[in-house]
Amino acid sequence: xxxxxxxxxxxxxxxxxxxxxxxxxxxxxxxxxxxxxxxxxxxxxxxxxxxxxxxxxxxxxxxxxxxxxxxxxxxxxxxxxxx
Length: 83
Known about the structure:
By secondary structure, the chain is an alpha+beta fold. The protein has helices at 6-11, 13-23, 42-54, 60-69, and strands at residues 2-5, 27-30, 37-39. A three-stranded mixed sheet has the order 1-2-3. The longest helix is centred in the middle third of the chain and has 13 residues, at 42-54. The N and C termini lie far apart (41 Å). The model has no long low-confidence stretch (mean pLDDT 93).
């Protein structure tokens, strides 16, 4: 995570935000008075929010981990899936 001061962030707002979005970076903005805050691109935030949501589904993480360790020969062929 990159860091900057609130004054530097204010002076370089556009380039700082563009860099966060282009590089999928998180920028921590430190303030002398008040709480610090972070800047993150919307797509990155949406990915985080989706991950948080999916982690709330009981058993889903374990199911994914189990499937990742399952040999391909034991899986179900795509054409045999019932959609």
